[in-house]
């Protein structure tokens, strides 16, 4: 067990700004891990689901690999993922759920993502149904979960807000 590691989960529906905010935190000196990149680069998936346009994750092996990684690092680690429930919760200090107004999220997904119309609609619906928030609430107590609206704040402003929450 590495008791000095404190993980900040950065979750939310695809398009809310997790990667951009994580980059901003990285520029401010924080250790950052994209769970998706970790899964892809380590081959921790069974295959690709062409209907849902996403990889089929081998959750058990992802958790084992994450625990191996956690034993080697200390301090704050920001993990960004829309599937934050995969991260073993023992070291999680806070869960930040980025939220976004559906019309703004749609504009971001249409402008920046090569998603199909169906995938965009699926993500908008997930945001309206608060799926990432509910997934976090099933694991973490309310005092560990903080929602931040990304609709009208810049990624840097959101990063600064997260830093003030951590400290
Ligand atoms: P996620 O990692 O949650 O899928 P991204 O960080 O990739 O989302 O952001 C999706 C798109 O929205 C990117 O093109 C990014 O530039 C833009 N974006 C992210 N955060 C903001 C923000 N706070 N305000 C305006 N645009 C943003």
Q: In what range is the share of β-strand residues? A: 15-25%
Question: What order do the SSEs take from the amino end to the carboxyl end, as H and E?
Answer: EHEHEEHEEHHHEH
Q: Outline, from the CA principal axes?
A: globular
* Broad structural category: alpha/beta
Radius of gyration: 15 Å
Q: How many distinct helices?
A: 7
How confident is the prediction overall: mean pLDDT?
Answer: 94
Task: Give the bound compounds.
Answer: adenosine-5'-diphosphate
Strand order of the largest sheet: 2-5-1-6-7
Count of beta strands: 7
Please summarize the sheet with the most strands: 5 strands, parallel
Low-confidence stretches: none
Helix content: 40-55%
Report on this model:
Helix content is 43%, strand content 23%. The protein has helices at 18-27, 35-41, 59-70, 102-112, 117-128, 131-137, 155-166; strands at 5-11, 31-34, 45-49, 54-57, 75-80, 92-99, 145-149. The longest helix has 12 residues, at 59-70. The radius of gyration is 15 Å and the shape is globular. Residues 12, 14-20, 108, 112, 150, 153-155 line the site of adenosine-5'-diphosphate.
């Amino acid at each position: 067990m590495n008791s000095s590691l404190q993980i900040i989960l950065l979750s939310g529906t695809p398009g809310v700004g997790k990667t951009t905010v994580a980059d901003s935190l990285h520029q401010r000196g924080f250790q950052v891990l994209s769970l998706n990149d970790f899964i892809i680069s380590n081959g921790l998936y069974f295959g690709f689901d062409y209907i849902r346009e996403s990889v089929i994750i081998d959750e058990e092996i992802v958790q084992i690999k994450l625990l191996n990684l956690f034993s080697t690092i200390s301090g704050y680690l920001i993990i960004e993922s829309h599937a934050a429930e995969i991260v073993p919760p023992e070291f999680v200090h806070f869960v930040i759920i980025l939220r976004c107004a559906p019309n703004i999220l749609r504009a971001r997904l249409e402008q920046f993502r090569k998603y199909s119309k169906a995938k965009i609609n699926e993500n908008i619906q997930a945001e309206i149904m608060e799926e990432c928030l509910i997934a976090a609430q099933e694991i973490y107590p309310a005092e560990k979960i903080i929602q931040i609206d990304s609709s009208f704040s810049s990624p840097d402003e959101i990063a600064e807000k997260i830093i003030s929450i951590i400290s």
